[in-house]
Amino acid sequence: MADLNAVKQALREQRIETPSWAFGNSGTRFKVFAQAGVPRTPEEKIADAATVHRFTGVAPSVALHIPWDKVGDYSKLSDFAAENGIRLGAINTNVFQDDDYKLGSVTNPDPAVRRKATDHLLEAVDIMDQTGSRDLKLWFSDGLNYPGQDDLRLRQDRLAAALREAYDRLSGDQRILLEYKLFEPAFYATDVPDWGTSYAHCVELGPKATVCIDTGHHAPGTNIEFIVSFLLRQGKLGAFDFNSRFYADDDLMAGAADPFQLFRIMYEIVRADALTPEYGINFMLDQCHNIEAKIPAIIRSVMNVQEATAKALLVDRDALFAAQAAGDVLEANGILMDAYNTDVRPLLRGGPRGERARPGPDRGVPAQRLPGEDRGRAGRRAAGRLGRLSSHPWRST
Ligand code: AOS
Ligand code: ZN
Ligand code: ZN
User: Fold this and answer.
1) Does residue 69's CB lie within 6 angstroms of at least one atom of ligand 1?
2) Which positions are tagged coiled coil (predicted)?
3) Which of 36, 316, 380, 390 is in Cβ range 3.0-4.6 Å of 357 for a Cys bridge?
């Protein structure tokens, strides 16, 4: 039987990193539905990330994206984050937007383009030196749309060369999080398409290179918790980009599409005693809120990750291991399902029945700043309502 006080303590200590880009306007290639009151600057994104931390208590860092969060003085931005009660997290590079990258970035057949892309990776490490960030998150949209377009093997050689330059530039506790993605924007072949490719490059690079699992980056039906378990056993799981998907890299709220999968993933983390910040996995969100209010959606996502974690912490592991050792299939599955089917919402949400925070103008909870409204007042207004509904009651105990 799980020790509830230990469960509560583990949940208090959990850390979930929010993505700066999720607070701003973003959407699909078909349309970005701009929303009033969204942040216009990195500072305003950080202020919104601080609002999420204020309500959840477990989101003390915000990942940056370069160049979307480019500023003149990153030390000053880091100080601004600290003044708002949070810190800067992973630095995300972007080698997918410039026209030069049409045929790839670090794997491009043109050495000049490869140089430009690799220099951007090195620029990101320079920024980490100023922000004090540990994590350099690398995602490459590099790939091919047609067979024969370029040489698959040479592209791996080019990728390895760029990764080696970035890896050798790291210092202190800095590390690489190499993210993979099955397809998109390339459709025939992606140069880092799966966990095996990322893992192999990370092994080749050394101990400071680890894999980042984006939960939206697999073929439908992929057993993600197997990947989690394997990488944990190899000491090569560095981070998650949590989000939800129904069909592709949909970047919907974490836990919204398949909370059972999120629970199974978090069980493997708990089983490996890998939940604590000291263990070093960065539990990040990577989402896009095109049609829903952003701050409440990110709070919902953080709470969904905590809900899955709470359930995973409730698994009676002694009984489960015993049933597994005895080959008692139904008992073992039943023990896992007992934890999954436990309603942990009263612990995670305020209100008598554990109702969810339901933001929205009709419920007196502004989704974002009203047009022209001072951001500080909007944040306080949002706080007033959301805070009562979504603060974790146990945080006071
Ligand atoms: C792209 O699909 C990947 O999920 C990236 O992790 C993410 O969108 C990017 O890091 C944002 O800059
Ligand atoms: Zn991602
Ligand atoms: Zn993605």
Assistant:
1) no
2) none
3) 390
